[in-house]
Amino acid sequence: MSDTRSPGPPRAWRLILLVGESRAERRALAVQLRRAGYDVIEAADADGAIDLCRARAPEIVISDWMAPGRAGLDLCRRFRALPSERYGYFILLTSRHDKADVAEGLGAGADDFLTKPVSGAELLARLSAAERILRVEESLRMANTQLKETLARLRDKEAALERDLREAHRLQQGLVRERNGQFGSFNLSLLMRPAGHVGGDLVGFFPVDRRRVGFFALDVSGHGVAAALLSARLAALLSGEPEHNIAMRSSDLPGGEPRSPAEILRHLNGLMLSELRTDSYFTMVYADLEIASGRVRLVQAGHPHPVLQRANGRIELIGQGGFPVGVFPNAEFEEISVQLDPGDRLFISSDGLIDSENARGEPLGDDGLQAILRTNAVLRGNALLESICWSAANYSGGVRSDDISAVLVEHLGRSGWLGSAVPDLLQ
What is the pLDDT of residues 11-61, one digit of tens each? Predict the structure, then answer.
């Protein structure tokens, strides 16, 4: 047996406002609407309709085109101007059929039209279309509300994360306890500039014994928190008390016996592969400076070439590259010996410096770094490091995608670096 029941009331409760001069026409429509499950309120003119809209916020308005007081088009415009959190559907009742009239009604904000005299079946069909529109609007409004709430929660979490990262930045900068050190006639200066709040670069120095000082620069693969955590772990291995420093081997001597640079890199490589068990690796330069003689023994492990600038301005690139730490189980690390004489300086930086790119995508490279060192030949210590950073930033237009760190070792000598360098540079 077929189902001849009416569609029944709408699934969502709706309030309809009827506006028109004829009370009989309003009542006839109201009866049909109430039978269809709608709640109905009535107004005889536009001013009364606007008052009801403010007080009751109907979801659907059905108005006669020629409503008294103000025309139906004017009412539609006033209805659209009312502040509301939800959409109101507006239907105009008209006996007009001209296309220009329809266009005028749509321009005023009407959603649909009903031709008088109104057919009950057509009325319900138009309301069914209105129902679909209103349900879509409600769904979008709910989704928008949920999105706003989610964005608010995300902003709160982002603010908390920002606070944590700022604190992490402060703590990571604290890993470099001293930015400058004086050892006999040698001056050591350090620079650490993460691209974000935290990074994977690390630099440092420490006295090995009364005769030697160790210094290093390393760059953990990747960026962000993971790289920063590994660099913090490495900082603990390369600083602090001698008995906890990986640069020292346990022995009967006070503080232990110093390891050679190559031995330190082999030990770190083994730790990375056997104990830390991480997918990360790092590049590094570790060096041992003999203070009295100026002799430096260093190992380059995948890090950019150390740059040796002699007192006469001549520049040499040190090392052959080498293997990164934590990649190959049986990697060998070549030890290199360099002599620093009065007026010489050794500069070690991460690849964030030489990889700085200009607007054409061209990296600064070793040649660009050498040009910067020659240009800033008269500067020393932190002033030189800051000037190098400024020059790199100027080259890249202020865009920096990688951490920058550096170690500067200067042999001041009796007369100081400037006394021997300037004459040759001015020739």
Answer: 447 899 999 888 998 999 999 999 988 999 999 988 999 999 999 999 999
Burial of residue 129 (CB within 10 Å: 0-12, 13-18, 19+) is middle
Contact 154, 347 (CB under 8 A): no
- The yes-or-no verdict on residue 166 having pLDDT over 90 is no
Pairing of strands 307-309, 295-301: unpaired
Helix (H) or strand (E) holding 317: strand 315-317
Distance between first and last Cα of the chain: 110
* Domains of the chain (ranges, CATH numbers): 15-144 (3.40.50.2300), 176-425 (3.60.40.10)
Contact between 423 and 213 (Cβ < 8 Å): no
Dist CA 131 CA 60 (whole Å):
9
Question: How many whole angstroms separate alpha carbon 256 and alpha carbon 247?
Answer: 9
Burial degree of 39 (CB within 10 A; 0-12, 13-18, 19+): middle
* 317-327 as b/e: b if 16+ CB within 10 A: ebbeebbbbbe
Residue 226 pLDDT exceeds 80:
no
Q: What is the pLDDT of residues 85-106, one digit of tens each?
A: 889 999 998 876 677 777 888 8
The rounded distance, in Å, linking the Cα atoms of 90 and 59 is: 9
Among 181, 240, 217, residue whose Cα is nearest residue 407: 217
The conformational region for residue 222 under phi > 0 = left, psi -120 to 50 = alpha, else beta, is left
Q: What's the pTM value of the predicted model, to 2 decimals?
A: 0.63
User: Checking phi first, is residue 255 left (phi over 0); if not, alpha (psi -120 to 50) or beta?
Assistant: left
The distance of Cα 314 from the centroid of its chain, to the nearest Å, equals 41
Average pLDDT, rounded, for the chain = 84
Q: Which residues contact 271 (CB under 8 A, 6 or more apart)?
A: 237, 246
**Selection from 422, 413, 416, 425 nearest residue 185 by Cα:** 413
Q: Cα(294)–Cα(311) distance, rounded to whole angstroms?
A: 14
